[in-house]
Specification:
With 174 residues, the chain is of the alpha+beta class. It contains 3 helices and 7 strands; from the N terminus they run ααβββββαββ. It has a domain of 113 residues: Chitinase A, domain 3 (Roll). Strands 1, 2, 3, 4, 5, 6 and 7 form a 7-stranded antiparallel β-sheet that branches.
Length: 174
């Protein structure tokens, strides 16, 4: 009798303990306008950071594109201009505005990617199309053209402006 009572007690305890709480509705006061304002404020702050960075690089003859990418070709090469669909072979160093290195090719190491057809940062995809084989370029990539709100989940934090030093080693039509 005691065993039946104990079993019934345990069963009732489990039933009560496992009872699901009613879901509470969470009301978020976020509108499209607030999202737009937030994005604009972030862009303004990032633009200020880039301008402060560039004040320390007075010898860089930087061009700004409509997307917000800034670039400076500091060594001219020869050969064809990079185009969408070509496969590019590059050497690179990616740093944050504070100079800390995120990624870098070492020695003779190179990376290849298909222009406009790969997961490479949008800012690099745009910037490489200003380059000829042998060119070296500095790209200042705002976060919206880089890794955006989430970063790369490794070495690039969310909302990080990147400075990419890129050398175009070779091109081939794909």
């Amino acid at each position: 009798m005691k065993l039946k009572f104990l079993s019934l007690f345990i069963l009732l305890t489990l039933f009560v303990a496992c009872k699901e709480e009613p879901k509470k509705e969470i009301k978020v006061d976020w509108t499209t306008q607030k999202s737009s304002d937030f994005s604009k404020d972030l862009a303004i702050e990032e633009d200020i950071d880039i301008k402060i960075f560039l004040q320390r690089k007075k010898d860089w003859k930087v061009t700004e594109t409509g997307s917000g990418l800034r670039y400076f070709i500091y060594k001219n090469g020869k050969g064809p201009l990079a185009e969408s669909g070509m496969t590019a072979e590059v050497k690179f160093e990616i740093t944050k505005l504070d100079g800390s290195i995120c990624y870098k090719t070492e020695g003779l190491e190179t990376e290849t990617f298909k222009i406009d057809k790969s997961e490479i940062e949008t800012g690099v995809q745009e910037g490489i199309k200003y380059m000829h084989i042998g060119d070296k370029i500095k790209l200042i990539i705002p976060s919206h053209l880089g890794h955006g709100l989430v970063g790369d989940f490794d070495k690039i934090p969310p909302l990080t402006t990147l400075v990419v030093d890129l050398e175009l080693v070779s091109l081939r039509k794909s």
